[in-house]
C-alpha cells in the first residue's frame, strides 16, 4: 500500500506535468490527500476503540471488524505517503525530499512538518506491529497501540498549525467533531474498562490465525 502510494504519486506527477495542468495541482492534491489521511486516521483510531469497548462488544467485537481495522491502517499509510510524496514536484513551496522526510529540515513551517513526520513514522511502526504481533506478544503489541492516541493528537496539531484549510469552518467542524468522538470513546474506555476475563478479544482470535 505504501509502495503503491509512492508509485501513484510519481505517476500523477508525470501525467500532470505532461498535461500542463495548473502549477498548483500538486499542492492541492497534497492538501486534499492530507485531509483524507486525517479522516481515515480518525476512522481507524475510533474503530480500534469501538472494537475493544464494552459498550459495542456484542455488535462489533468480531474478527472481521478487526480485519477491517487492520486493513484501514494500511489505507491510512497509503494516503499519508501520497500526501507527502505528491508535494515533491510542487513548485509553489518547492520542497526537497529531505525537507519532507527529515525533522526540522523544511524551510516551510519546520515544526508543523516535523509533527507530521512523527505521525507518519509512528503510523508505519504501528501498522507494522499488526504483522509482527505473534513475535512481540500481545502485551507489547497492546502497549505499542496506545501510541495511536499520541499520533492522532500529533496529526491534529500538524493539520491545525500548517493546514491552509484550517481556517475553513467546515474543516474546523470536522476536526472538532472527530476529536470529540475520540475523546468520548477514550473516556468510555477508561470509565468502563473490560474485566480481565473478557480481554482476549476478537482481535486475539484474528491474530492467532
Ligand atoms: C513527513 C510527513 C508530512 C509532511 C512533510 C506533511 C506536509 C504537509 C504540508 C506541506 C501541508 C500543507 C500546509 C499548508 O497548507 O500550508 C500539510 C497539510 C496537512 N497535512 Fe501533512 N504532512 C505530513 C504528514 C501528515 C500526516 C501523517 C497526516 C495525517 C494525518 C497529515 C495531514 C495533513 C492535513 C490534514 C493537512 C491540512 C490540509 C489543508 O488544510 O489543506 N500530514 N502537510
Global outline: globular
Q: Rg to the nearest angstrom?
A: 18 Å
Round the mean pLDDT to the nearest integer and report it. Answer: 87
Low-confidence stretches: 200-209
The ligands bound in this entry are:
protoporphyrin IX containing FE
Q: What multimeric state do the chains show?
A: single chain
Strand segment count = 0
Distance between the termini: 22 Å
Instruction: Please count the helical segments.
Output: 11
Proportion in helices:
over 70%
Strand share of the residues? under 5%
Number of domains: 1
Q: Order of helices and strands, N to C?
A: HHHHHHHHHHH
Major sheet attributes: none
Secondary-structure class: mainly alpha
Quickly list its features.
209 residues, binds protoporphyrin IX containing FE, single chain, mainly alpha
Describe this structure in words.
- The chain is an all-alpha fold and 209 residues long.
- The chain has one domain (23-208).
- It is built from eleven helices and no strands.
- The chain has helices at 2-18, 25-51, 57-60, 63-85, 97-101, 110-131, 133-136, 138-145, 147-162, 169-191, 202-208.
- Helix 6 (110-131) packs antiparallel against helix 9 (147-162).
- The longest helix is centred in the N-terminal third of the chain and has 27 residues, at 25-51.
- Residues 200-209 have low confidence and may be disordered.
